[in-house]
Amino acid sequence: MKKAFLFAFTLLFSVMCYSQSDWRIHPDDAKYKIYGQFETKFRNGKVFYELTEVNPIGFTFESIDPIYYGGKSKHGDVYFTFDHVTYKGNPDLDNIGLFVYNESTNKWDADSETESRQGTDNETKDMEVMLVLDCSTSLSDAAFVQAKNSAASFIDEMLRESSAGNIHIGIIGFSSWELTKVRSIESLTTSSSKSMKYFIDGLTKGGGTALFRSYDEAFDMLSAYSNNIENNKFAGSAIVTFTDGLDNGSINESKEIGSKKNYFNYIKNNVLKKSIKGVPCQSYTIFLPGGADVKDKARENEAVNDLKTLAKQDDHYFRVNNASQLEAKFKDIAKNLIDSWKIIQCYIAPGQNGRVCWTFGRKVNTINVPKKKSNLWLGIGIEGGLLGKSQTDEDMYYSKYYDEESESKNSGYLAARVDAAWPLSNSLALGGTLGFGSGEEIALKVGPLAKFSFNEGTALLLGLGYLSSKNGAFYVNAGWKFKSPWYINAGLNLGDGTGFSIGVGYTILGK
């Protein structure tokens, strides 16, 4: 009897612990998730890991490939890399749960084998950026200082995402081309960021605005520098341009471009159509009206058209009305760049063929979350049962002195019962059972209760404890709560013999 009780207690405790340790969010409940169809294939003696029918929820991919090919991690798992991922909100990219669809049960099964690998071993991809900053004399002293401070803030924002030096930045401060200052592209680290900001702070104003020549030079620098980055680690490139007016000094003898009109057409028809390592170069432009050459509306419209053309898409063109707004725009661009180059790597064991889903985040524990109203579950019920066959003292005495066998008797009872449980999470509530009734003697039933909730108010009830009646017994109970307030329970009473109980209850508080 003691062994049976210990077994029942261990089983109940194990189920309770499991419900709390499984941190993964089920695909039906996940806000951020990626679905796919995984298959291991063999062709010409080589193994290929393919993921098809990819469907991201909560994420936006720049493009979705028909087939993603997986690599092999040092742990032996297969990983898939999703590039150019953007999202709204704050998905937890460090806690990725894997679920595999079980065709026989039509349910998603959590895969704990790859638990420790999710969110780790991510490849760090490299991005390169050119800052192209107007240093012409048409800028007021205050606006020029604000522009330089804003560019320095851009460096700081990018540095937070360049812990491995995977972001590379170059700087051009332009006025006339002869006075333009250029800083070569370099990996962004804590040390180099100081040098970059020192370079920006040292920029001075000069006559002329060689905007197109500087933009062209920035693209050529990015193209050349990209040769230092492996193709499979190249995330992309971008040019961020700030100016207050129109180009008025761009020519290029080596390319035989002799006017700003021809330079604009060259950029429009050539540079903007090129890509770097097969990836289009992103372009952002910031316009601060007020330059001496954009005093009338027609010339201002011309400047807007030029900058929108360089930006390639309208939402990459920003207009600010005063210099105090520059820092916010530079930070916005930094965030956009960082988000556009986010990569996600998801892992799976090689043999897990079929439908898969990666979910992002951990289940929320609501133990300490205050509630406006009580979530206590409370039910009342009745139950009857037998404690098992046993002999009374009188029967045992009679059998001993008269040498006759006496028949063991079933000891029955009927009790009213109160069941209560307090929620520890969305799926688990803990509490207890208290029952009081009578049989051949007064019956008192007491013990812990666990309530495991499912959809639409249904729940599994598990309990164990002690029933004091006759010689007493330990009990193990299991029950089911329906969508309605009603629930039923049945159990075993483990005393001198084995008995049973059956009961019915009604929920008066909670679900």
Provide a descriptive summary of the structure in words.
The model is unreliable at 15-20, 119-123, 367-373 and 396-402 (pLDDT under 50). The protein has helices at residues 2-21, 141-159, 190-201, 211-225, 260-269, 297-311, 326-340, 393-402; strands at 33-43, 46-57, 59-61, 67-69, 71-72, 78-87, 96-102, 107-110, 126-134, 167-174, 181-187, 234-243, 275-276, 279-280, 282-287, 317-319, 342-348, 354-360, 377-390, 409-423, 428-439, 442-453, 459-468, 473-481, 486-494, 498-509. Helix 2 (141-159) runs parallel beside helix 7. It is built from eight helices and 26 strands. It is of the alpha+beta class and 511 residues long.
What gap, in angstroms, lies between the N and C termini?
34 Å
Estimate the helix proportion, in percent.
10-25%
Task: Tally the helices.
Answer: 8
Derived from helix and strand composition plus strand pairing, the structural class reads alpha+beta
The fraction of residues assigned to DSSP E strands is 35-45%
Strands in their spatial order, largest beta sheet: 19-20-21-22-23-24-25-26
Could you report the average pLDDT, rounded to the nearest whole number? Answer: 85
The low-confidence parts are 15-20, 119-123, 367-373, 396-402
Q: Note the main sheet.
A: 8 strands, antiparallel, barrel
Shape: elongated
**Number of DSSP-assigned strands:** 26
The radius of gyration over CA amounts to 36 Å
